[in-house]
Amino acid sequence: MAKKISFDPKQIREKEVVDLGEIPVNQYVSDIKKELKRYGKDRLIKVYYDMVVIREFETMLDSIKKEGVYQGISYNHKGPAHLSAGQESAAVGQAMNLDPEDYIFGSHRSHGEILAKCLSAIDKMDDEKIETIMKEFMNGETYKVVKENFDGDSIKDLAQNFIIYGTLAEIYAKSTGFSKGLGGSMHTFFAPFGSMPNNAIVGGSGTIAFGSALYKKVNRKKGIVIANIGDGSLARGPVWEAMNMSTMDQYKTLWEDNKGAPPYMINVFDNLYAMGGQPVGETSGFGMAARLGAGVNPQNMHSERVDGFNPLAVADATARKKEILLKGEGPVLMDTLTYRFSGHSPSDAMTYRTKEELEAFKAQDPIHAYGKYLVDNKVTTEEELEKMQQKVLGKLKTALSITVDEKLSPMVDGDFIESVMFSNGNAPALDDREVELLEKLEDNARVKQISRRSRYAFDENGKELSASRQYQYRDAVFEAMAYRFVQDPTMIAYGEDHRDWGGAFACYRGLTELLPYHRFFNSPISESAIVGSGVGYALSGGRAVVELMYCDFLGCAGDEVFNQMPKWQSMSAGVLKMPLVLRVSVGNKYGAQHSQEWTSMVASVPGLKAMYPATPYDVKGMLNGALRGTDPVVFFESQKLYGIGEQFVKEGVPEGYYEIPEGEPVKRVDGKDVTLIALGPSLYTCMKAQKRLKEEYGLEAEVIDLRWINPLKYDLLIESIKKTGKTVLVTDSSERGSYLQTVAANLSRLAFDYLDAPPVVIGSRNWITPPAEMEEYYFPQVDSIIDAIHQQVLPIANRKIVRNLSDGEFTRQLESGV
Amino acid sequence: MAVEVVMPKQGNSVEACIILEWRVAVGDTVSAGDVVCEAETDKSTIEVESSADGTVLALLYEVGDEVPVMSPMMIVGEKGEKVEISTPKKEGIEESAPQKAEKEEVAVQKNPAEPVRTVNESDELFASPRARHAAQDHGVPLSSVQPSGPKGRIIERDVLAYSAQYPSISPAAKEAIVNGDGFAPPQGSGIGGRILLKDLLKHSGDTAAETSSLAFPGEVREIPVKGVRKVTAQRMGESLATTAQFTMTSYADATSLMALRARCKNSDPALELQNVTLNDMVMFAVAKTLQQFPALNAHYLGDKIVEFEHVHLGCAVDTPKGLLVPVIPFASLRSLRELSSEAKRLAQKAIDGKAQMDELSGSTFTVTNLGALGIDSFTPVINIPEVAILGVGGISLRPVGKGGDDVSFVPHIALSLTVNHMAVDGAPGARFMKALVNNIASIDLMLAL
User: Fold this and answer.
1) Is the ipTM of this complex over 0.95?
2) CATH 1.10.630.10 applies to domain A666-816
3) pTM (predicted TM-score)
């Protein structure tokens, strides 16, 4: 328990200085004898070869992009090409001491890293394994093209061709690419060789790679995980969040069953430019990226700057850092100095650096320097190097010719893209090892407490039971979570105030006693790192449940929720799965920054499943489904409802496992005059409106609880509109752009001929959420619903208007932007 | 003070309503909202409510009169209050035709009770898609419907409310009709004229006399048989005694007939088609059809049968004196308008007792019509020496299979043909009926002939 780590006021007030220690810079000393002994002659020569492959690969892309032709082969490449000529030594040096199970995640400029890592993995794996991987990957489609058109003189040679072709085909959007062409240049990767997703968002890999390291740690998998990011990304918040979270003390102080930090390294390929801006001297103040380690933990993150112009210096440092990581003593920050000769992209006019500077660096060309080093030390000869260059030229010519051949390398069709948007998997457990628990579920205090509660809100006389006797919405969250924790050994949950506190809204009370630290822990207040690491954990093969304490904090995790979580399944053409559930609690009473319902933002991003249950029965059933699937789910919960019991399902919330059919709304009340469609807590507003419409105006409203956002089945809604011809949609979200506006528009389209009035959306006002005392001005009220019916749908005799829902007022609001 | 109660405006296109029935009489006390009369537009039947409280001082129109909308139709005031009326009256209704007053003596207060129509600004017709469907399903013209929806929009309930003025048929009655246990009258006794099981007309007479406590046989009156009555008695008796009459009944789809009548009614007065009646159209069809069936356009003279090339159509008219049959000569050569105006002219003369004898003889085929009196089918008696007579019944809704179990109710007009078997056999008679049924169903096409 965190309680055991207490503060001593006397001690913390004592006079002291922070001793930052030293951070090594370019300390590598060349010693050919040592290197020969360490790697052998062939391996040292292979370093040169790998660098040439990368250089020529990038040269080819550059020529095609700028001139449309390479070695006589023409092609029009429409997509981007962020090249790394000049940085080959850094990439190849890093890969040298990495094993296939070590992961690297990269950036938009990672072609070289992919090739280096995969070529290294090929060297380290036995032929049989390599062949199996190639044959099994994407049902052998890529392999078949390579085998028939680009065969090698050995399995390893063939595997090199496979990597070159698969990467190039991906960059050129071909179905034989590693992600069927759906990832493209900035997202290419090949996981079986340890090259993990590269990210087009600057610093995007910071949190994801940390999550992947967390996966290795929690699940005791071999290997380390490196986030290869640029010096420009050091200014990004999520990178700092990941760095901070990777240094949490709890790995050492509290993770008693699985001690040590996740094996996470941030490696900065420090090429001195962030597109055109210069972090050093212009846009940042750290002077040297390696310094930043000192700001994060007492070990300075074992930070070190390495001369990335020498592959052997990088290889040496990487090996040393890997050792630290494998001992659980990380994380590590490496500042690998390098330089790109090419522009940021082919459109780069290089207005930000001088020709002299570029020439000076080109004179330090790492490939040339390394070749000279080998020749000078008689490891090889100029002729051998020349022969290697010729071989590489030949390989790339063939690779390009079969990639641009539309028959050998076609593109996928639109239907395919649709087919990989979701994996729709059924995965009760993502590993078959034994689950780690601190106690039996049935012995858990929360479980016992819940067992005494009534799973239906009313007694046999229809009287509502006291809150403490009711099985509540929050209990349903707990039950679904606890169930899956017992089923799936990979499942973890973390976020703010999870452990001890039990979550800010007590959904997780009881899990602290049930689960060891590494399965359930407190995160720092780092929404980006919380969600981003969840993405990394999930795409590495584990199930994660992460939480945003308030929906308003979605903005803090914007990139992770909108760019990472939804995209990786389809950008990888289904290679990756994303069994990640993001619980998002929608607030109220806490004013403008803690009370917003942003389902529409999530709904508008393709690739996410989203739901917003309003009853305990649905919470459990829907969370159950989310937790056994393999898709990313945003699970909205309402703080208005955590204490509510089950008011609709008379049999009560089942004790056993069940799911709610995906995408199906549910009818709560039968009616014939008007259909009220609710999302989330507005269900209860609609229920009250339904009652008043009946009692005061003799109107029978049908009430439908949408409960799903995406996917959503419209049958029930259309059926209801066919009956009533009228619908008012009610949401706590601000009206403008709300998700129910989408539903309303869809219903106008799907049921137009049955409509007796346009569907009307009643949302919250397009204001700030005012303080709790004034919330009734803001959230839809029963009178808003009745007046919407009266003024827009079906004039009601004897209705005295309480809220002005006329067109004039609506137009005025629209015109005023409120 | 006396006030005028006006005929309300029923939708945008309605210009006048025909009074079908007064529910109040002069001297009755009425309150605003009481139904005072039933009136017919070209599209529907409505109940007109009084817009004022008081005693009915005058009814300005008779049953059958056409009242322009927004014009006074009744005057309500204090009991005994004297009013002089200057309302223009239709000709031909002598009894109630008030004397023309030089000047209104009583200031007649304009009643502001114009029906509320919350129109949209442009006064265009706006109706929800659902209302449009409902209008189609119920055969309701949207232009006649009062909108109650937001922004002057016609919504479903408006169409249903309008449609409720039409007779609807209860499920039990529907089932009975489908089973052949009766047929629907134009109007039922249920709410809004809903046709209930008990309203169904039986195919054969079924009236059970109520026993009464009156002394048997009750009051009697003696009426001498003379004049027209005597002639009629002799001719009918002779007809039945000397011929072998049998009657066959069929029904013709009246949809086109009704549509045509509505069009005539709404047509430019200059065309002189506004007074064309359903019966005129049936006669028109009969005249045209008979040309193909000379055996029915004939006289049976015992030793010979005389077939006529031209149709001289007898037209039974109920006059104050009794049944008279003026004859429209060369009916088959006339257009519908000519036939109609000739029929009206002759009927009026017969009613007025001014018909000449040659206008009452020489018919080759007779049409008699009891449909307006709610009779469906009957057995008309042949006007000898003609060999056939057509009895025209009323229009009723009859079930028509729409494929599957779906049944729709379509207005049909009943036709009863009595034939003298001595001259004409059943099959030729039936063939004539079939052709007539088809021709009436497509009366619009007949006009082109």
Assistant:
1) no
2) no
3) 0.72
